[in-house]
Write the structure tokens for this entry.
Amino acid sequence: MATRTPNAALGSFLRSRRDRLTPARAGITPFPGARRVPGLRKDELAVLAGISPDHYSRLEQGRQTTLSDDMCDALARALRLDEIERRHLRALAKPAPRGVAWERPQRPEPGLLRVMTALDHLPALLLGRRAEVLARNALLDTVLGQTFEPGASFVRWLLLDPAARERILNWEDFARAAVGGLRYETGRHPQDRKLTELVGQLREGAPQVAEWWDDHRVTDQSSVTKRLAHPAAGQLEFDIEAVTLPHCPDQRLVIYTVEVGSPTARVLPLLSSWTPEPRPGAQRT
């Protein structure tokens, strides 16, 4: 008889979300008895989800490897999960895919590549699985002061390279979001060995990354603001937009947009014609 593999990732995520939810925020009166946890007790969460405390304990212990959609919905409501957390919970609750190695080289999606080529007046890059650079334009390199060759790890540069902290003024916002994005990706692709190795290397390379990883936050941000300190052009501000296609969800076209008439919009044409010597890109994963 086959042994069922414990779903430790599911249990850890549920426990982390329960710990952050207080009885007051959950809208309930605390159950009587000693409290030894920062958030809800297991029995309180079980009542909110409409299941027995023993059943919920099995979930946190990873002893139930898959969940129905109805159970996921009940837990999501009880834990007050947002939309991205709900999707992450559903991904963790699915059976792990078999026979998918994710070892094949990635190739840029032609449609996204055409869009990027048409946007040479704006910094843009195309990212694949594990935030691997599939393509980018010259203006992106100029703005970030880094040469991102295809196959380079954008997230490795962002999280481990001191130059990224110097260039990105709101670095911590982006770094936290990148870690949350990696956790979301591991939930969708638990079989991706290279992704697991990358996460381990990033956690070892930066204590902050390990701390953010352990809080189980998940993100899938598209519209965000990035502020940069450019050595020649001064402070630049971009609204970052991410575009994906339904048939290619693991590739994301990231576009650095600007407000019409803004100081950044006025200086971009000058940067387009300026070709400094950017630093070499991050090492490949």
About this structure: The mean pLDDT is 90.
